[in-house]
Amino acid sequence: MTLEAIRYNRGSLSILDQLRLPHQTTYVPIKNSQDGHAAIKTMQVRGAPAIAIVAALSLAVELVQQQGTSPFPDAAGAVKFIVASLDYLKTSRPTAVNLFDAAKKLQALVERVGDRATTGEEVVDAYVAAAEQMLVDDVKDNQNIGRFGAEWLLQQAPDKVQVLTHCNTGSLATAGWGTALGIIRDLHKAGQLKHAYCTETRPYNQGSRLTAYELVYESIPATLICDNMASALMQQQPIAAVVVGADRVAANGDTANKIGTYQLAIVAKHHNVKFIVTAPSTSVDLNTASGKDIHIEQRKPNEVTTLTGAVIQSIDEEPKGDVHSQLIRVAANGIGVWNPSFDVTPAQLISAIVTEVGVVEKAEGSDVFDMKSFLTAHGKL
Ligand SMILES: CSC[C@H]1O[C@H](OP(=O)(O)O)[C@H](O)[C@@H]1O
Hints:
Layout: E1 6-9, E2 12-16, E3 27-29, H1 33-41, H2 48-69, H3 75-89, H4 97-116, H5 120-156, E4 161-165, H6 180-189, E5 193-199, H7 206-217, E6 222-225, H8 230-236, E7 241-244, E8 248-250, E9 255-258, H9 261-270, E10 274-278, E11 284-285, H10 302-305, E12 306-310, E13 325-329, E14 342-345, E15 352-355, E16 358-360, H11 371-377
Helix pairs in contact: 1-2, 1-3, 2-4, 2-5, 3-4, 3-5, 4-5, 5-6
Bound molecules: the ligand CSC[C@H]1O[C@H](OP(=O)(O)O)[C@H](O)[C@@H]1O.
């Protein structure tokens, strides 16, 4: 059983508060789209697929609740409310495209159902069923990504492999299983993983707090490194691949992912290490021609000037059980800060993009991917 980041039953949603991991395991109730918006914006839940699903389900629980107390008088009222709520949810975070993709699909669905429905209940039921299906589909998609990615990598490097990953792409970033971390799970299950390395992923430390936690939880042989140790690692260890997730893949394959991904791709190229992007097709944005059109989220300076963690008395002490995380200021007062949450890795530096329907590679001699043809050929458009 992998970690459960999202707990959902019709009418009830709670999420594992990722700001308190790994030291505290606390589930936060999400009762409506306001709660969903706040949880996404403050990063209690994060990761491109997880954001989309929590947004969709936060509105689903609100609608179920409302239907039980003060039902919509008609179908048009329900459609109007849902569309306005989705528009609001889309303002929570800007870079991961999955949220916008989910909102677009859900809006199209309720408008379609609303055209022929006679009651608000029919519209609500259709919305709730579709949001629930997204949760189910994401787990399946991740499992396929893991399988395709592991198979592809083992074709390139048939011996047991060592891989490096960045940020968090596991059960905590998705509906379950994970994308890049899904590949690591599959390699491990197949007895083909020699070792996994994960970066800390400053400033939010999704690597040291979340990926490391998942790797330990799953008993996968793994080592944590600071972000600035990646080149030395690739210089000294045979690393078969860097495997990362994606927040948005442009039509040409340029990929926005957690800040620091781009520098890993450059280092991988220098050391002749495969660089694998993993992304469900919902992360592919064909309306974005290339990476320069991707809106990169800027986050608050205090994420860089501070660290969150368990306070301990000595450097060797290991915090036990649920301990309170505290915020510690590490930077000099008065220093200016630049804090982009993501960067864009050019397609040229990416070896393959692994999706739930297969692996995309560049045509011979090309520097870019043809995501549109790939998705069309696999029935995704
Ligand atoms: C499986 S998508 C994970 C993706 O989301 C992360 O961003 P954030 O923690 O800011 O939501 C990161 O870019 C990961 O690769």
